[in-house]
Amino acid sequence: MDYEKYIGVTEDFPKKGISFKDVSPLLADGEAFHSVINDMSEIVKEWKPDVIIGPESRGFLFGVPVAFNLGIGFIMARKKGKLPGKVYSKTYTLEYNTTTIELPACALKKGMKVVLVDDLLATGGTLNAVRELVEEQGAVVVGVTTLIELGDLKGRDLFKDMPYKSIMNLLGA
């Protein structure tokens, strides 16, 4: 399926110079959404993960149904202050700000095989921060998949040492 026709583009959002890729049209089309989740599930299945982790919030939209399809668990990587109890945190820099991502301390076990799932890979800051948190807890990231890769922003370079697959490659800004 040609998923690119389901991706909206908003220029200068959230700030001037950013070309925002909007997955809302894809999510609103039942056939396209079902198809992309099946395609992502086929990619992830190859890596035989124990669990999927998706970063807030669009990673939830793709990671949860992929985990459901594969009959495995899903762990939320959330923005600072959104998870109860003990958490592990990582502060990192994005294209346009600095932020903190957290994982629940009770979620990962040593040796657990994890796949990271998100809607988009740009510079890779968020997914790399999640990867570092996973590895600090003794779990292993066995693969990363996204719906969209903004190839010209070189986020893939952060994941040269592991499998990474996207459904489509678009230009970023």
Helix content: 25-40%
* Overall geometry: globular
Low-confidence blocks of residues: none
Task: For the record, give the distance between the C-alpha atoms at the N and C termini, rounded to a whole number.
Answer: 25 Å
Number of strands: 9
The CATH class label is: Alpha Beta
Mean pLDDT: 95
The main β sheet shows up as:
7 strands, mixed
Q: What's the alpha carbon Rg, rounded to whole Å?
A: 15 Å
Query: How are the strands ordered across the major sheet?
Result: 5-6-4-3-7-8-9
Describe what you observe in this structure.
By secondary structure, this protein is of the alpha/beta class. The chain has a single domain, classed as Rossmann fold, CATH 3.40.50.2020. The chain contains four helices and nine strands; from the N terminus they run ββααβαββββαββ. The mean pLDDT is about 95.
Mind sketching the topology for me?
Elements: E1 8-11, E2 19-22, H1 24-28, H2 30-45, E3 51-55, H3 58-70, E4 73-79, E5 87-93, E6 98-104, E7 113-121, H4 125-136, E8 140-150, E9 164-170
Parallel strand pairs: 3-4, 3-7, 7-8, 8-9
Antiparallel strand pairs: 1-2, 4-6, 5-6
Helix pairs in contact: 2-3
